[in-house]
């Protein structure tokens, strides 16, 4: 689905990663790991098309697929004067176009997405009044609304409590079972080993691919907040 050909990513012509070769197969679930500053976020930005490769290339799916990109929380403006409902409604834009009013059925979909992440009671709240974990749940609800086939997530679980991580992981597994391709930047090796079949590790000199015997958490257990995660 996505192929890296001697891809080096970085800024203003300066590469921050070694050359990357390999493939993200359609329907794969890949953990992107590496030390701070190794270039994980930069690779995601490149995959999202936000910045061009420094050298080499990345071949994207043809025909193009809809993608959703969840940046690190630090990148997200919490003081935006909108409601939680509005944030999730933004997930409809790829389908409806910018700033179009949501239909009655989309309104129901948005409330269902908020219910799925346990945030329906906060629909009218402002993002600035939410905790980090609550905001992350809302951003996941927006991602669900996007109905994307390629999900790019940058450290989605940092600072999030275990129960919420279990819920969000179960949602990712559901998307994976629906055939989505996922690339997730992670630092927690236990989560990587238990949930991700493929690992792309970025080192300072070279990158490596690893295949895991991931143990998928049963969805129902994760939804109940089970401890298996
Ligand atoms: N906008 C930018 N312009 C120039 N250099 C940048 C920019 N953003 C990041 N960098 C540099 O690129 C390198 C890789 O940064 P990146 O954020 O991709 O690392 P990371 O692996 O995601 O790190 P972390 O685990 O700390 O989030 C770092 O040396 C960083 O200083």
From TrEMBL:
<dbReference type="Pfam" id="PF00005">
    <property type="entry name" value="ABC_tran"/>
</dbReference>
<dbReference type="InterPro" id="IPR003439">
    <property type="entry name" value="ABC_transporter-like_ATP-bd"/>
</dbReference>
<dbReference type="InterPro" id="IPR003593">
    <property type="entry name" value="AAA+_ATPase"/>
</dbReference>
<dbReference type="InterPro" id="IPR017871">
    <property type="entry name" value="ABC_transporter-like_CS"/>
</dbReference>
<protein>
    <submittedName>
        <fullName>ABC transporter ATP-binding protein</fullName>
    </submittedName>
</protein>
<keyword id="KW-0813">Transport</keyword>
<dbReference type="InterPro" id="IPR027417">
    <property type="entry name" value="P-loop_NTPase"/>
</dbReference>
<dbReference type="GO" id="GO:0016887">
    <property type="term" value="F:ATP hydrolysis activity"/>
</dbReference>
<keyword id="KW-0067">ATP-binding</keyword>
<dbReference type="InterPro" id="IPR050153">
    <property type="entry name" value="Metal_Ion_Import_ABC"/>
</dbReference>
<keyword id="KW-0547">Nucleotide-binding</keyword>
<comment type="similarity">
    <text>Belongs to the ABC transporter superfamily. Drug exporter-2 (TC 3.A.1.117) family.</text>
</comment>
<feature type="domain" description="ABC transporter">
    <location>
        <begin position="2"/>
        <end position="229"/>
    </location>
</feature>
<dbReference type="GO" id="GO:0005524">
    <property type="term" value="F:ATP binding"/>
</dbReference>
């Amino acid at each position: 689905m996505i192929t890296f050909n001697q891809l080096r990513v970085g800024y203003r012509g300066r590469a921050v990663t070694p050359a990357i070769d390999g493939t993200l197969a359609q329907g794969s679930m890949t953990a992107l790991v590496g030390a701070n500053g190794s270039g994980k976020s930069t690779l995601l930005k490149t995959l999202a098309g936000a910045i061009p490769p420094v050298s080499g290339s990345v071949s994207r799916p043809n025909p193009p697929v809809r993608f959703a990109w969840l940046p690190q929380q630090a990148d997200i403006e919490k003081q935006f004067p909108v409601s939680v409902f509005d944030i999730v409604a933004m997930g409809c834009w790829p389908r409806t176009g910018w700033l179009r009013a949501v239909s009655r059925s989309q309104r129901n979909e948005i409330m269902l997405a908020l219910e799925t992440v346990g945030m329906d009671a906060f629909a009218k709240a402002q993002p600035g009044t939410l905790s980090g974990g609550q905001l992350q749940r809302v951003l996941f609800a927006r991602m669900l609304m996007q109905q994307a086939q390629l999900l790019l997530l940058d450290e989605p679980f940092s600072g999030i409590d275990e129960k919420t991580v279990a819920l969000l992981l179960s949602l990712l597994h559901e998307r994976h079972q629906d055939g989505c391709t996922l690339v997730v930047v992670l630092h927690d090796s236990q989560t990587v080993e238990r949930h991700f079949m493929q690992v792309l590790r970025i080192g300072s000199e070279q990158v490596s691919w690893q295949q895991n015997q991931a143990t998928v958490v049963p969805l129902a257990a994760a939804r109940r907040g089970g401890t298996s995660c």
